[in-house]
Sequence to fold (201 residues):
Amino acid sequence: MAAATNPTTGAGTGITIGVLALQGAYTAHQRMLHDMGVATRQVRLPQDLQGLDALVLPGGESTTLLHFLQQGDFWPALKDFAATHPCLGTCAGLILLAQHVQPDQPSLGLLDVTVQRNAYGRQRDSYIHIGPSELPGGLLEMVFIRAPRIVQWQPEAQVLAWAGGSPVLVRQGRVIGCAFHPELGSDTRVHQLLVDACLTP
Ligand SMILES: NC(=O)CC[C@H](N)C(=O)O
Fold:
C-alpha cells in the first residue's frame, strides 16, 4: 500500500486504481477518480491487475461482464485480486461482488449479501433518490438504473445507505458495494471510501 500524503483526497497518495473496462460505465469512474487526483488504469486483461492498489467494478450488464471475465484465466485472477485488495462494485459490479445472485449466476462472493437483479424495474424506470447515508455530510443523491436490490444481508456487511427500506451501499472490510451509480454526478464520497481503504494499513 502507498503512503498517504493527503488522506482527504487521492492527490499525492501515489495510489493507482484500476477500472474494469470490459463493458459499461467505466469512463465516468475514471473521470471521477481523475478529478480526485487519483491515477487510474483500465483493466481489460488479467495482467492489467498487476501493481494496482484497488479496483472499480463498474455498472453495465453483469451477464456480459461475466461472459468476458470467464474467458481464459481472468476470473481466477480477478478472484485473487478482489480477495486481497480494496474493491468498489457499483450496480452490475455489486452483483459480481455479492455472495448470492437472484436469478442464480456466478459471483465473487466477497460481500455477504444476496442481490436480486433488475429489482427496481426497467431502464425507463431509472430514477434519482436522495436519502440519508452514514457518509460524512449525510444526505446522498443516488442514481438507480436497472439496479439490483440487496434482499438479504449479513451483519458483516455494514450498511452505509438505505433507499426504500433496502441497503444500497454496503462495506465489508475493504470491499464496497453500491446499488446505484455514484460515478454519475460530482459527489466523490463513495469513491473516497475506496481511496481511504487503499490508505488504511
Ligand atoms: N446499471 C447496471 O449496472 C444494471 C445492472 C444490470 N441490470 C445487471 O443485472 O447486470
Remarks:
- The longest strand covers residues 166-172.
- The chain is about 25% helix and 30% strand.
- Helices lie at 26-35, 62-69, 74-84, 92-97, 189-199.
- The radius of gyration is 15 Å.
